[in-house]
Each structure stands twice: as structure tokens, then as C-alpha cells.
Design brief:
Among the domains are: about 80 residues, no CATH class; about 35 residues. The protein is about 70% helix and about 0% strand. It has 5 helices and no strands. The protein is elongated, with a radius of gyration of 61 Å.
Length: about 270
Amino acid sequence: MMNRPEAGQFPPPPSLPPPPPPEAPQFDIDSAAKEESRRRRSERVRVERRHRWATMEQREAAAGASAAGDPEADENAVWGGGGVGGHHCVVRRRHGGRGAAVPGRRWEAVEHQQRQTAKERQQREAALAAMEAAWGARADTLAAEADALATQLEAQMEEEEEVEAEEEEDNDFEWSDDDGPHPDEAADQQRALVESFESEKKLQNMNKELPELFSMLKAAEIEIKKEHQVLMVNKTTSFKKQGKSKGKFKKGGKKAATPPVKPKWP
């Protein structure tokens, strides 16, 4: 008799890894066209089956009514009845008044739909090819521009490195008095001489213009004095004329008294 293992004697079985996630469905033009064709075919079969059963029921009903003596039922029996596949369809009358569809018309519609689908697929493929070509040309242009910019940047960086190296060499060189005046100091001295010469020239020009300015100021002062005298004379004359004309001023500047008016009695 075998001994059963006790609880916890054996380790639990390892857990299985989770299943991989399902891949995203990829769109395929051919498979989509096949699926659409299959769906339309099944829909067409259902419509035809329903139409056939309806036609059979209409014919059976028309046959029963004809046996009962209904004149309209005889016409429905000949032309296929009203409604779907009924006598209102002229094309069905031309084909013997049968309730079935016109021979070949259904397959013509199917072929037309297939040709239209193929044409649309070709147009989409041509548009995609043109778009891919345009994007490829654009990518080539951008790559060429990027290469040109990279080359230009490398050349610019090399020039900057050369300039920095030259500046470092110039800074490392120590100028001594035996070598003569420093170029920067000589340039500063030359600039100071030029500025002093220009300032001296400006002072000379100002000294030449000063006598003319003084003479102009004196002439303006004389003109102002003359105008002031004329204004004062005109003001005094206007005051005198005003006092004589109105009779309001006497000696001493007081106002003259007006005599009372005497009434005239009869």
C-alpha cells in the first residue's frame, strides 16, 4: 500500500506565462475586396431566395383566386402578380411576364461592380505610389540639405578653432620693452593724438565764431531796447488819449463829479 504525500511536501507546479497579446489586424486591400464581394454575394442570394418564395406564394394565391372566378387574379397569374416581380415592371413583361429576374442582368451588375472595385483599387495604388515617390524625393532633398549644413558647420568650427589657437598663441607671447612699444599701446596713443587734434581744431573754430556771436548779441540787444522804448511811448500816448476823450481824469487822478440834473417845470 502506497503512502500518500503529505500536504506541503511537493512544491506547487510553476505557473504558465501569460499568452502573448493578439497582433493588431493589418489592413489588406485584396482581403477587404474579397470580404466585400462575399458579403454582397450572400446578400444577393438572400434577396433572390426571398423574391422566389414571394413569387411562388403570389402565384399560388392567384391560382386559387382564378379557380374562384376573380378576373384580376387571372392577369396577376399571367404577369407575375403585384409587388416584387409584379406586372408593374415593363422589363419583366418583355421577357414573357415571368416573375423571375431578367437573364444575364444580375451577372452584368456583378461584373460592373467588380470592374469598379478593381478600378478604385488601381487608383488608390497609383495615388500611394505617387505619394511614396514624392516623399522619397523630399527625403533625398532633406538629406542633401542636412549633409551640406553639416559640412558648413564643420568648416565653421574648424575656422573658430584656428582663430582660438592663434589668440592663445598671442596671449602666451610676453611682450618686453626690448621688443619696442606694444601694438595696442601704439594704437591707443595714435587714437589719443587724433582725438586731441580734432578737439583743438574745434576750439579754434569756436574762437573764430565767438566775435561774430558777440556782435550779433549786441545788435539783438539794441533792437530789443528800441522796441521797448517804442512800446512805452505808445502806451503813454494811449493813456492820455483815453483820459481826454472820456473826461474821467483830472489833475491828481481823481474822477470828476457829475452835476445834478435840474428838472424843467412848465
